[in-house]
Amino acid sequence: MLNNRIRESSLLLLVFLFAIIGAILVDLSDVSGVSLGAIFLAGILSLLILAAHLANRFFLKEADYSLLPCAFLLASFGAIMIYRLKPSLVWFQLVWVGIGILTMTFTLVFFGGKNYRVLENYKYICALTGVVLLLSPIFFGREIYGAKLWLRVGPFSFQPAEIAKLLVIIFLAAYLKEKSELLSTSTRKLRNMVVPDIKHFGPLLIMWAISLAILVLEKDLGSSLLFFGTFLVMLYVATGRIAYVAVGIALFTVGGAACYGIFPHIQTRVDIWLNPWLDATGRGYQIVQSLFAIASGGVSGTGIGLGYPSHIPAVHTDFIFSAICEELGFLGGAAVILTYLLVTYRGLKIGLQARDDFGKLLAVGLTSAFAIQSWIIMAGVTKLAPLTGITLPFMSYGGSSILSNFILLGLLLSISAESSPKPSGGEIYGE
Amino acid sequence: MNKRLGSLGILFSIAFVMLIINLTYLQVFTARKILSHSENKRALAQEATIERGKILSSDDKLLADNIAVENGYVRTYPQGEITSALIGFNSSTYGRTGIELVYNDYLLGQHEISSIEDYFKELSGEKIPGNDITLTLNLSLQRESFEALGNNKGAVVALDPKTGAVLAMATSPTFDPNNIDENWSVLVKDSTAPLINRGIQGLYPPGSSFKIITSSAAINSGAAAPDSVYESPGEIKIHGNIISNYEKKDLGDITFSEAFALSANTVFAQIGVELGAEQLVDCAEGFGLNHQIPFDLSTKTSKIPSADKMDDVDIAWSAIGQADVLVTPLQMALAGSSIANKGIAMKPFLVKEVRDHRGIIIKELEGKKWLKPIDEATASEIKNMMIKVVEDGTGKAAQISDVSVAGKTGTAEVSTGEPHAWFVGFAPAEDPQIVVAVLVENSGQGGRAAAPIAKKIIQKALRVTE
What we know:
A: 15 helices, B: Beta-lactamase
């Protein structure tokens, strides 16, 4: 059997080829031909890929071999599209990927192997910091694109929800590990159904309140759904009680419906989702432009650099998926979707193989957040779900998002290194 | 806990597969429908990079051309407002009209790929220029028509009666398509409606020019002959409703042919009532009223009320082209064509041929029969009556030395000021080369305001076609 190092490096070699060809193709779409820009882009991407590979293999020999190639496939794809859409921004994006790899390496060093378990001890600090970060934009935030998601520190804008997401997941994993038995066993019978005791609905109500606060005060439906969805998934996995999920969905529906009735901006969001064509030049402009882009891609796309994705506002951040669908067609779009599904699958597998409940819950939480977030934005730009301003992991332009996703990746790799089966020889003879 | 992770995996798989299904729906099944939405700027951006086909007149003059600019082309119209009502415009902001709209696919070259060579060029990203369109329009006749209208509001439609080819179609006032984007807001608000092609989109009461149709109904059915004698008092009363001759002149006993030449309303009102609504309406519909005229550009349908809604008063007024009868100048030109062409109206057409960028003809159009409202004998008798109109009737202003001109004047009373002036005629009467319908809004008598314009156009046309 091939070892993980060789598997990872051969997969990364494919990503490396993909990055070079992609960068060159962007330049070839123009009459001016291949520029230094494409060569730098391809060169820097391959150096970054190499650095991440070496860090992962040096610090964690046993870590999962497919997560890094998948993440870099997405990150390279994203960088190539940013180079094609807003060439001057791609260098910032590469700096952020570099910082992301550095942070990921720290994560591997500090939390690799069994070390991630120390996070359990800091659960309340995580919870507190997470909630403060999450709610801070309400008081200090700047409103961009109609949602208050941004904090400004000096020249940098920063999306605290991206980091808060990780902290809240760490807390929930630790908390649910401790309380799962209590939450799942202390039940009573209601008619023929086994339902948890009323008093154990406390955590659910608190998370519900926080989610609604994000929705109402920050006008951020995307983050609200992401937090509550991730929480429900973790709660279900920890307790096995569908009742929690059912009550949770009911609560969120009631809360959402009430908000729909009270707040015009939420009504607008939903109305645009139901029929953006009624106001194609006004409030529905963004989604309508996105649908034009996607439709014009057809099966095989216009070719990279040969479409008109720049008609979509915010195309290099939230709408990068639409640009891919236009220029690389259904085949490119489906490939991206499947890559996200693959990461999700590997993440759940890491959870499956983790040897302790905290590891399992942490892996599930991180993976679910990743999956839910990518689903929400891809469904949003394709009008499958209401559109919400949220980034596409590893692909969208933006520092906070890149950083938090590399930390998320580092944590998943850390858990995987401990959970992967040890080389069989040692244990048998050790008996 | 592991079992729950399994179900979670299934849940996420379903969710992501839904994304792929939705993407298939958008990119494969409904893409065409989404892209056809009017707000989609992609098509226009794409099209701006294609060298659009030229539009030429039948005498090989450029009517629409392109100027190459950085990454694309800008459309220009060398003839400006002379041909704007037909060619239309091609604006990224306000869309397209006229031939630019109707023949857009041909002009872009997207209609068909005409050779294997082009197919490979297209695959390699090379842009194939669009197809050129040649119109039946004769530019010098078109210019003459436009200038003859001058500052009047009105329209001229000139056809070849034997084929239906449009030789000229002028409308006034009109617009300059070269700066449509800058002038748009003024043009749409202008109360004189310069964006309307009056020749095909203006509906007017035909006045006495309608007597061509009333006479056709009378002679074709045998109810009257050119030498039938009628009494023509200065005015008659029908159920208390007074219909009078021009200046209430008592013309005494005159033949039907004389009544036509002098445009005697009191005779035609009687004939209308004798014929009855059904015969009159049937005949008018035979000439094309109440029918959509098949044409390259969109036309308004000329109207006559249905027979069962008319009483004798309505019939009498309709017989002299008033009341609720409304026609386009194109319709009257077609009525004239039927007389000129032995009772057969040819289908009017404006586009003669389409050639691809290599000059190979990919579409060619020719005359087709459209309607046959009357038989040849009736057409010949009406023609003779129309010759008399110009020889010594109301249409003397259309006389041309050495050429026999046939025509009919019309002076249509309207509630908004002076009557509209009409002239419908053709020449040479023995072998008609051109039929022309002239309408001048609010300018008085057809014989004075419209006939001289028709004369100029006919003269020009006969010189041009010689």
